[in-house]
């Protein structure tokens, strides 16, 4: 693991992110860094070291725009997942699927909703917006209008995802608890559990 911002030497070890912060260097530029724990050692590392390579995401077939978008969201995914027992890779995969690599209107600023989370209470929500969406109802796909959560930042979208995993739905508050590392045991099982939990109405959800 690289310390003090040397992103090029990151060796891919599984680490725990303790906190994130920003610092202004002598050249006047502002950088985001993470304080991380790697085994028994604690380091500060430049956030640019936490990119898609750390999650073993194959980007060979992606466009430059898609790669840039991934680089922009992976640090937030890692921050939320590593500190709360989720799989960052699953979160990123869902964000890709739900937002079409950040190109959907709902995912773009000022809405910043990467997961298609519908209007519901959360301490991370900044407001609500109405969009057309496709649902699988009665053995057919239909287009309906629905209200969705909006966020002041992409990071808050990830934290609201965490909130949803922790609090489930009104009729089953523990519905998504089997997505956490301690229960699922692997990222692939976590993805399967999301499908069996009924996270989305799309029949192909979890197959990509």
Topology of helices and strands:
Layout: E1 16-24, E2 30-38, E3 41-46, H1 64-84, H2 88-99, E4 127-137, E5 140-150, H3 154-167, H4 181-184, H5 187-196
Antiparallel strand pairs: 1-2, 2-3, 4-5
Characterization of this structure:
It is built from 5 helices and 5 strands; from the N terminus they run βββααββααα. With 208 residues, it is of the alpha+beta class. The chain has helices spanning 64-84, 88-99, 154-167, 181-184, 187-196, and strands spanning 16-24, 30-38, 41-46, 127-137, 140-150. The relative contact order is 0.11. GO terms for molecular function: amidase activity.
Question: What labels describe this entry?
Answer:
two-stranded antiparallel sheet; 5 helices; Lysozyme; alpha+beta; single chain; hydrolase; disordered N terminus; Glycosyl_Hydrolase_73; globular; MGlyc_endo_b_GlcNAc-like_dom; three-stranded antiparallel β-sheet; 208 residues
CATH-derived topology of the largest domain: Lysozyme
* Helix amount: 25-40%
Instruction: Please give the order of strands in the largest beta sheet.
Output: 1-2-3
- Overall CATH architecture of the largest domain: Orthogonal Bundle
The backbone outline, from C-alpha atoms, is globular
Query: Structural class, judged by helices and strands?
Result: alpha+beta
Low-confidence stretches: 1-12
Q: What is the total tally of β strands?
A: 5
Average pLDDT value? 79
As a percent range, the share of strand residues is 15-25%
The separation of the N and C termini measures: 31 Å
Oligomer: single chain
CATH classification class of the largest domain: Mainly Alpha
Question: How many distinct folded domains?
Answer: 2
Rounded Rg: 18 Å
The largest pleated sheet is described as: 3 strands, antiparallel
Compressed to H and E, one letter per element, the order equals EEEHHEEHHH
Tally of alpha and pi helices = 5
